[in-house]
Design goal:
This is Copper chaperone CopZ. By secondary structure, the chain is α+β, with helices and mostly antiparallel strands. Helix content is 45%, strand content 22%.
């Protein structure tokens, strides 16, 4: 499943927690690229990641917990 991460609405976003979440849920990112994607997201640009189908529900819950807005692409 591919999703767009649109923005983070948390008043004080936890950059480390967001990067760790992206690294854990994404099927093709390591921690270094997750840190880069987190920087892009927090600057206000949308990013696209792919999530393995087996953990879609928990991944979306984790994103909501971090106040990250997303849209499902496919």
């Amino acid at each position: 499943m591919k999703i767009n991460l649109l923005s983070c609405d948390a008043p004080r976003p936890d950059k480390r927690a967001i990067a760790q979440c992206i690294a854990e849920i994404s099927s093709n990112n390591d921690m270094a690229s997750s840190n880069n994607l987190t920087d892009i997201l927090l600057e206000g640009d949308a990013i696209e990641i792919e999530i393995a189908d087996r953990n879609t529900g928990s991944a979306l819950r984790a994103l909501r917990k971090l106040s990250i807005d997303y849209e499902i692409i496919e």
